[in-house]
């Protein structure tokens, strides 16, 4: 097998974009994004999507190719990404994939899990609870029924929580018990590079990034999207907190503080997810890129 996908993973604000561009230039290849928030063209600042300058430094795919009004999910991304890889591997022996959305990374490298069908009324009931009692009630229910999923899924995303709960309730088994251990065969080898740092440093980098986002105009970006705040794509860190400010529930200082806190929680869950892959080659965030390239070359040979 002479085709290789280099997958770069790690928590938010760790430096994945920079490394992906360096590797793309080194291997003279292209980049696939597996960051589900960066798919949407209306969301630039709050998702820390690659800038125009960064995208010009190496060809990128799956950046701003969808609208927040489009119904786009992980299954569609798996299909599209595999088709894109098939095309790219006709030109390159190595392709780079980068992103912090663990489920989307796994969809490409391993394939999606198979879940049984459950009574749609269960989801309707859970959505009703969400509207009447809020996400916290559903989170606590999931913590009781499936502590493993509670620790691993995007717990602040109501759609993910409801999906896990409907499987737990509909099958009387934990959602996590349906997560398969076997990997679908792929016509390429995957080398996974993980970037990490001490937790305090990760959190400091996140706090600084959020301040930078505010300086770059995150408030105005979210204001322009207020009409669409019910769209699932906008129910995410950096946007939902600003909506709370715009609705008068919080002052701006509180909203920014909540973005930082929720981003830190997100980073913790990302690390938990990515640490499950024992084959990942982990490097400190400030490792000399040449060392990483040398390690990849060793894997390739």
TrEMBL record:
<dbReference type="InterPro" id="IPR039657">
    <property type="entry name" value="Dimethylallyltransferase"/>
</dbReference>
<protein>
    <recommendedName>
        <fullName>tRNA dimethylallyltransferase</fullName>
        <ecNumber>2.5.1.75</ecNumber>
    </recommendedName>
</protein>
<dbReference type="InterPro" id="IPR018022">
    <property type="entry name" value="IPT"/>
</dbReference>
<feature type="site" description="Interaction with substrate tRNA">
    <location>
        <position position="123"/>
    </location>
</feature>
<keyword id="KW-0547">Nucleotide-binding</keyword>
<dbReference type="GO" id="GO:0052381">
    <property type="term" value="F:tRNA dimethylallyltransferase activity"/>
</dbReference>
<comment type="similarity">
    <text>Belongs to the IPP transferase family.</text>
</comment>
<keyword id="KW-0808">Transferase</keyword>
<feature type="binding site">
    <location>
        <begin position="10"/>
        <end position="17"/>
    </location>
    <ligand>
        <name>ATP</name>
    </ligand>
</feature>
<dbReference type="Pfam" id="PF01715">
    <property type="entry name" value="IPPT"/>
</dbReference>
<keyword id="KW-0819">tRNA processing</keyword>
<feature type="binding site">
    <location>
        <begin position="12"/>
        <end position="17"/>
    </location>
    <ligand>
        <name>substrate</name>
    </ligand>
</feature>
<keyword id="KW-0460">Magnesium</keyword>
<dbReference type="InterPro" id="IPR027417">
    <property type="entry name" value="P-loop_NTPase"/>
</dbReference>
<comment type="function">
    <text>Catalyzes the transfer of a dimethylallyl group onto the adenine at position 37 in tRNAs that read codons beginning with uridine, leading to the formation of N6-(dimethylallyl)adenosine (i(6)A).</text>
</comment>
<feature type="site" description="Interaction with substrate tRNA">
    <location>
        <position position="101"/>
    </location>
</feature>
<feature type="region of interest" description="Interaction with substrate tRNA">
    <location>
        <begin position="35"/>
        <end position="38"/>
    </location>
</feature>
<keyword id="KW-0067">ATP-binding</keyword>
<comment type="subunit">
    <text>Monomer.</text>
</comment>
